[in-house]
């Protein structure tokens, strides 16, 4: 049967809406290894991640990993709530394209709010614009990096122990990158985790008073050159959808959207 321009356009639109699930599964897997939770349990294919020492949603969320796993949703949500209650954490679902549509409908029907939509972007390192800017070597001192990251992000220093524990638990080789200003200290940070042929970027930030000065671009390029030297072939990162400046930076470097995820939480929480 012949395919006309309209059907081709519709097919392209569908491809943009429906990401390749094999790619999503691989990126989810390397993401979990790069940002390890202290406790990981499974209820069917729902991965339940909990971390007493750090409040990150990725470390404290239910992550459904099979679109066909949708039996007994109500009881499974209640079981997850009890586990989160034992950690004194609010129950949060992280809904990627791997989550079953029936779970999404279940949460919708009960008014669970959807928040913090995040875009996962990726690109072949050979095609990314990473050869400009100064070279920066990764630091080896996790404590120094944590201090710099907290300062750049403007976070509470009470998070230092938890973040140190998370970074110390990362199994794949990782590079801790900090760009500093001689007068005012750290201005930009990045964590690059090299997992086989993949390089994941985390903790990307530039201090508020130093944004639009090229520091973010420089730290991304330095981290990915390090990963390329180690043999990484594909880079990926996550950015919240309400951050157009960062999305524009990564797109200009050559990153493209692969898929999106968002968090869901019961009404009256958070």
TrEMBL record:
A GO molecular-function descriptor: acyltransferase activity, transferring groups other than amino-acyl groups
Family matches, as InterPro entries: Acyl_CoA_acyltransferase (IPR016181), Bact_Acetyltransf (IPR050832), GNAT_dom (IPR000182), Rv0428c-like_C (IPR056935)
Domain of life: Bacteria
Pfam family, one: Rv0428c_C
Keywords: Acyltransferase, Transferase
Gene3D superfamilies with a match to the protein in the record: 3.40.630.30
Keyword field contains Acyltransferase: yes
Domain N-acetyltransferase: 137-270
SUPFAM superfamilies: Acyl-CoA N-acyltransferases (Nat) (SSF55729)
Claim: Ribosomal protein is one of the keywords in the record: no
Protein name, as recorded: Acetyltransferase (GNAT) family protein
The species this protein was found in: Hoeflea marina
């Amino acid at each position: 049967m012949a395919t006309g321009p309209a059907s081709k356009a519709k097919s392209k639109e569908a491809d943009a809406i429906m990401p390749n699930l094999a790619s999503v599964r691989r990126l989810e897997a390397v993401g979990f290894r790069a940002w390890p939770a202290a406790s990981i349990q499974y209820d069917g294919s729902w991965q339940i991640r909990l971390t007493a020492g750090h409040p990150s949603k990725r470390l404290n969320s239910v992550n459904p990993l099979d679109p066909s796993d949708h039996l007994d949703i109500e009881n499974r949500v209640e079981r997850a709530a009890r586990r989160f209650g034992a950690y004194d954490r609010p129950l949060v679902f992280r809904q990627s394209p791997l989550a079953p549509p029936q779970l999404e409908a279940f949460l919708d029907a009960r008014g669970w709010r959807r928040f913090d939509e995040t875009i996962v972007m990726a690109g072949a390192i050979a095609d990314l614009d990473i050869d400009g800017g100064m070279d920066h070597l990764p630091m080896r001192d996790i404590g120094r990096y944590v201090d710099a990251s907290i300062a750049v992000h403007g976070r509470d220093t009470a998070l230092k122990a938890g973040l140190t524990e998370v970074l110390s638990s990362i199994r794949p080789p990782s590079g801790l990158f900090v760009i500093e200003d001689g007068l005012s200290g750290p201005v930009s940070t990045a964590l690059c985790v090299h997992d086989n042929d993949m390089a994941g970027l985390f903790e990307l930030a530039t201090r508020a008073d130093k944004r639009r000065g090229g520091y973010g671009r420089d730290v991304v390029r330095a981290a990915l050159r390090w990963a390329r030297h180690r043999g990484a072939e594909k880079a990926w990162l996550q950015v919240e959808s309400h951050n157009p400046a960062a999305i524009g930076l990564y797109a200009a470097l050559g990153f493209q959207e692969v898929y999106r995820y968002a968090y869901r939480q019961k009404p009256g929480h958070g």
